[in-house]
Inverse folding.
């Protein structure tokens, strides 16, 4: 019996659109609740009296759970199937995200942020696995579908919170957390009802073979992890510090516009990527083009203080990381055997989000130690260079069929 999208001709147009919709909605929940926090960080900072290092940790802790829980997520996929694992993670992330609004101090806020990250971490290895199971002949298209959801989810929560959500909720950051948790929770039953179920039975034998633990000796996992980690660190680090940085420069009035440009420009990426879905598989050009542009944006933040420069730099960070993000996420499904996608993805996420917590924390610590706000961007500059170099290298790795042929 063929699986979804596994026939010789591929899925019908209607089924393809349905699968892409389900992947898109799942992608929305992966980022919408996480990116609802950066726009309200100044409010949280004032109410809970956070240091800059604590601000870095607030953004970095969910990323740490992305790393810590990625391998258990791979095990869960092996036990109950990728579809149900994604659903479980979706519900956990939505409930915990809303619980952030009930935090009474920084420690309870950290606890809720950790739980939110845990839910997302369960989902993340499942998404490349679902793409490989549902659309094995259209991996690039399936990856674009769920990464587009991630980008849209990030954009709507980050760009709409300051101008629309906070005013409507009386300026309460706590109510804003509950507001963004609600649609994330509502997506869960839609995902369950619309997604195909046959692949859950196919995934279970993986556990019997023990193929859920990443092979840490493979250079591919480290190349994938450091490439994606550079992308994530640059994006999340900018979201974490842009508000405080602008305030330190006497430009607090630009915060809403800068966050809007940072996350809003990501919306353009899915349309461009859909038009060239088959042109970025195993290609180095996205990293060689957009990595240097990302570096240029951080240099502009440091050295150019004009309003136009700030907005253009913020937009470039969002756009360049959005263009390289799907290119990196498609690689586990492209370079792994079908039964290895979840464990390769788990290894990639473990490494990448370890970078994700380390880099914002280092950025905040540099700011605290030196008293110079611009130093927070130095680790992000290193990430831009790493993304360019390793991204180009990893695309040169042989595909699974090529490895077998070369033996």
């Amino acid at each position: 019996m063929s699986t979804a999208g596994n026939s010789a001709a591929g899925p019908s147009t209607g089924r393809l659109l349905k699968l892409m919709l389900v992947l898109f909605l799942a992608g929305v929940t992966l980022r919408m609740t996480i990116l609802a926090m950066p726009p309200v960080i100044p409010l949280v900072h004032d109410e809970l009296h956070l240091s800059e290092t604590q601000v870095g940790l607030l953004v970095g802790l969910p990323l740490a759970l992305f790393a810590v829980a990625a391998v258990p997520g791979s095990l869960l996929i092996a036990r109950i199937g990728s579809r149900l694992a994604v659903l479980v993670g979706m519900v956990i992330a939505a409930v915990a995200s809303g619980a952030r609004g009930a935090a009474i101090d920084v420690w309870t806020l950290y606890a809720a942020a950790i739980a939110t990250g845990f839910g997302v971490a369960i989902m993340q290895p499942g998404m490349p696995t679902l793409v490989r199971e549902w659309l094995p002949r259209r991996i690039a298209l399936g990856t674009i579908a769920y990464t587009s959801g991630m980008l849209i989810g990030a954009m709507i929560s980050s760009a709409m919170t300051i101008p629309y959500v906070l005013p409507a909720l009386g300026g309460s950051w706590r109510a804003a957390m509950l507001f963004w948790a609600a649609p994330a929770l509502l997506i869960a039953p839609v995902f369950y009802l619309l997604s195909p179920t046959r692949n859950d039975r196919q995934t279970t034998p993986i556990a019997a073979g023990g193929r859920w633990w990443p092979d840490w000796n493979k250079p591919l996992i480290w190349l994938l992890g450091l490439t994606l980690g550079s992308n994530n660190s640059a994006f999340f680090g900018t979201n974490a510090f842009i508000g405080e940085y602008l305030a330190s420069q006497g430009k607090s009035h630009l915060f809403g516009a800068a966050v809007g440009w940072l996350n809003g420009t990501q919306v353009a990426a899915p349309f461009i990527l859909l038009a060239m879905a088959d042109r970025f598989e195993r290609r180095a050009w996205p990293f060689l083009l957009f990595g240097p542009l990302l570096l240029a944006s951080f240099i502009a933040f440091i050295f150019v203080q004009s309003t136009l420069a700030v907005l253009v730099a913020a937009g470039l960070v969002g756009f360049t990381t959005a263009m390289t993000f799907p290119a990196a996420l498609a690689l586990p499904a492209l370079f792994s055997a079908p039964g290895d996608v979840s464990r390769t993805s788990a290894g990639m996420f473990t490494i990448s989000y370890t970078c994700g917590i380390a880099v914002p924390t280092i950025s905040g610590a540099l700011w605290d130690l030196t008293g110079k706000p611009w130093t927070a961007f130095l680790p992000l500059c290193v990430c831009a260079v790493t993304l360019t170099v390793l991204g180009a290298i990893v695309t040169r790795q042989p595909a699974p069929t090529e490895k077998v042929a070369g033996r």
User: Anything to note?
Assistant: The mean pLDDT is 83. The chain has one domain: 13-196+209-405. The radius of gyration is 20 Å.
